[in-house]
Specification:
Elements (H helix, E strand, L loop, with lengths): L3 E3 L17 E7 L3 E9 L4 E6 L20 E6 L18 H14 L5 E6 L1 H12 L4 E7 L6 H8 L8 H8 L10 H9 L4 H18 L13 H16 L9 H4 L9 E6 L7 H9 L4 E6 L9 H27 L2
Parallel strand pairs: 1-9, 4-5, 4-6, 6-7, 7-8, 8-9
Antiparallel strand pairs: 2-3, 3-5
């Protein structure tokens, strides 16, 4: 069985790279009436890595560019259908997991990339695993944070009172947005309001939905964003709810776990916060145990957010190690010529 590592708090700190603007950005027309925002950072001929953001519906942020050495990597970031700078905003039409997997392939082909590292956290880790299981020949390595696999148990934990047992005041505010008779299935109850005809009600429930997750994202509580804006919250909540009420559009609830054999030979690097209230560590441990090519680092003083210092440091360290390995491999290849 693969071993789980715990970070050493006395180890040297690995800092994010300085802020950097993309060297190219564009909007790609996708089937089904969607227009997807895409940007590339680093160097044009660098080692390619695609960044899959969380949510669904979270969108990419400038901070996500900072995990990759800009002298080595060609980092590809894009806003998934319906969120961020993609349009139509907050749309769930033609917006499924399989549409996103197909979009990733369209992006790869349009950029002339043969294989790439796939980097994602939370829902981004879900999408990364599904993409890799669908197109294993296109994946050089997976770098994942805060594993979520779209099982009923994970959804019940976060929307059925499990996490609420640790955050009872926030849980009461979230769950009491709907009448008592509907609180047994909050995903369905919120769905009625998020997709109702009253846009003001949509935004009110969207902010409650997004706020519940935001408050639990960091170990210390709160994600440093305060109350999410109406436009962001509406896209985030509608897309998350749409995916969750449809079980992620997967064949079975355990599909990701069932298909782990398809990526057995792909190197995997998992970073998990020990006190992750959004995506509990048991899921990362289970994935790790069924993935011979993986390593798992449990960060002892971290929750769920990408911005948790311990999580950021581990991810930068992993990407630097993959950079060094690629450079050493290239050096050896040149030496044999």
């Amino acid at each position: 069985m693969p071993e789980t590592q715990t970070t050493d708090s006395a180890a040297p700190r690995r800092r994010l790279y300085p802020p950097r603007e993309p060297f190219r950005s564009q909007v790609m027309e996708m089937p089904g009436g969607h227009r997807v925002y895409l940007e590339e950072c680093g160097i044009k001929n660098g080692q390619p890595v695609v960044v899959l953001h969380g949510g669904p519906g979270g969108g990419c942020s400038p901070g996500m560019r900072r995990f990759f050495d800009p002298t080595h990597y060609r980092a590809v970031l894009f806003d998934q259908r319906g969120c961020g700078r993609s349009s139509p905003h907050a749309s769930v039409e033609n917006n499924t997991t399989w549409d996103l997997v197909a979009d990733i392939e369209r992006i790869r082909e349009s950029l002339g990339i043969e294989r790439w590292i796939v980097f994602g956290g939370s829902w981004g880790a879900t999408l990364a695993l599904i993409y890799a299981q669908t197109h294993p020949e296109r994946v050089e390595a997976l770098v994942l944070r805060g594993i979520f696999t779209m099982t009923r148990g994970e959804l019940d934990w976060f929307y059925g009172g499990g996490a609420g047992a640790f955050w009872p005041d926030q849980w009461r505010a979230f769950s009491h947005m709907v009448p008592a008779e509907e609180r047994g299935d909050l995903i369905t109850a919120y769905n009625k309001r998020l997709f109702g005809e009253d846009e003001a009600e949509q935004i009110r429930f969207a902010r409650a939905w997004a706020g519940w997750e935001s408050q639990l994202a960091m170990l210390a509580g709160g994600a440093g964003r305060g109350t999410p804006s109406g436009a962001y919250a509406r896209a985030f909540a509608r897309l998350e709810n749409h995916y969750f009420i449809n079980g992620g559009f997967l064949e079975t609830g355990d599909q990701i776990h069932r298909d782990m054999h398809r990526i057995a030979d792909i190197p995997g690097h998992i970073v998990q916060g020990r006190y992750d209230m959004v995506c509990p560590p048991v899921t990362a441990q289970k994935i790790h145990e069924n993935w011979p090519g993986s390593d798992l680092v449990m960060v002892p003083d971290a929750g769920h957010a990408l911005s948790e210092p311990g999580i950021s440091e581990e991810l930068v360290g992993i990407m630097d190690a993959l950079r060094d390995a690629a450079r050493e491999s290239r050096r050896q290849d040149n030496a044999t010529l």
